[in-house]
Amino acid sequence: MHGHLSWLIPDGYLPEKSNGDLVSHEAVCVLNTGPVDAEIRLTVYFEDREPMDGFAVTCKARRTHHIRLDGLSDEGGNSIPKGVPYAIHLTSTAPVVVQHSRLDTSQAALALFTTMAFPEV
Fold first, then answer.
1. What is the 3-state secondary structure (H, E, C) of the chain?
2. Contact in structure between 63 and 96 (CB atoms under 8 Å)
3. CATH number of the domain that 50 lies in?
4. Closest CA to 40 of 104, 83, 2, 89
5. Within 10 Å of residue 28's Cβ, how many Cβ atoms?
6. Total of domains in the chain
7. What distance in Å separates the CA atoms of residue 70 and residue 65, rounded to the nearest whole number?
8. Phi/psi of residue 107, each to 5°?
């Protein structure tokens, strides 16, 4: 098994608009190399409002799961707002590895970036 139970992603932002056929989005990419399913929970933090909690997904054992943040809803049906900076705390019931990526198509020159999340030891 590889990874940690707690990860931090300090830079999140869903662009309000997209250009062309590609939709601007972010993804939290989870790798579970272990023998048991990982129950994943996300808490989203903001600069000027209370955190959003209740985002939950499962990453099956020995699998990956790419969590598209532009289509994710919490238990109450609420989505992460667009055009607002945020950060994420991801917790897991089994050790996982986490990577964060963003596709920004709000301008003609597309931007794609990816970075490893920060593991909490």
1. CCCEEEEEEEEECCCCCCCCCCCCEEEEEEEECCCCCEEEEEEEEECCCCCEEEEEEEECCCEEEEEEHHHCECCCCCECCCCCCEEEEEEEEEEEEEEEEEEECCCCCCEEEEEECEEEC
2. no
3. 2.60.290.11
4. 89
5. 24
6. 1
7. 15
8. -125, 165
Tokens 């990874």 appear where? 3
Domain that holds residue 85: 4-120
3-31 pLDDT, tens digit each: 999 999 998 888 877 776 776 678 899 99
Interval 42-76: pLDDT, tens: 999 999 999 999 999 999 999 999 999 988 999 99
Quickly tell me which residue has 């020995």 as its tokens.
Answer: 62
Sign of CA dihedral 71, 43, 106, 77: positive
